[in-house]
Amino acid sequence: MPELPAIAPLVSPETKQFWDATAEGKLLVPKCGDCGNYFWYPRGICPECHGNNIEWPEASGRGTIYTFSIMRRGMGPYANSAPYVLAYVTLEEGPTMLTNVVTEEPDTLKIGDPVTVVFHDTGEGNAIPRFVPAGS
Predict the structure, then answer these.
(1) pLDDT band at 3 (very low <50, low <70, confident <90, very high)
(2) Tens of pLDDT along 13-55?
(3) C-alpha distances in Å from residue 95, one per residue of 52, 56, 115, 135
(4) CA distances from 85 to 3, 58, 73, 93, 103 (A)
(5) How far apart are CA 63 and CA 130, in angstroms?
(6) Is the preceding peptide bond at 83 cis, omega within 30 degrees of 0?
(7) Which CATH class is domain 16-133?
């Protein structure tokens, strides 16, 4: 299976804490300190109550596949990476994130399969969180 590119993200002041943690192999998921809502994507305001008391607890790194597509043809930086899996993964903490599931056997994946986080270094002081089937 071809390797997926690990393109460095654009880091903003609101997401810097998240991206810095990825370099240490930590997945932080923002949580509102006012209403307790975990949410995804990282931002400075809670989408539930609009509070700005945001905490950054470390997530378990475990989740389940909510849905996915097997991309059999890549474009741009992914041109030579097909087939690869683009997926929504629902974390144990509640939010669902768009990511990749990295596997040698994409055709064996099923909705509801358990997955765990892995990190692919960008070479720019951060890493891209992706998931592998649990037990891999």
Answers:
(1) confident
(2) 989 999 999 999 999 999 999 999 999 999 889 999 999 999 9
(3) 18, 14, 14, 22
(4) 12, 25, 11, 22, 8
(5) 11
(6) yes
(7) mainly beta
- Separation CA 51–CA 60 (nearest Å): 24
For 46, the token pair is 């809670």
Which whole-number Å values give the CA distances from 96 to 4, 72, 91, in the listed order?
Answer: 21, 23, 6
CB 32 within 8 A of CB 53: yes
**Measured distance CA(57)–CA(108) in Å, rounded:** 32
At residue 26, the pLDDT reads 98
Consecutive H or E run containing 18: helix 16-22
Residue pLDDT, tens place only, 69-101: 999 998 999 999 999 999 999 999 999 999 999
* Amino acid type, 126: N
Encoded amino acid at 53, one letter: N
> What is d(CA 53, CA 62) in angstroms, rounded to the nearest whole number?
25
What are the b/e assignments for 32-53, b being 16+ CB within 10 Å? beeeebbbbebeeebeeeeeee
Residue with tokens 């692919």: 120
Give domain limits for the chain: 16-133
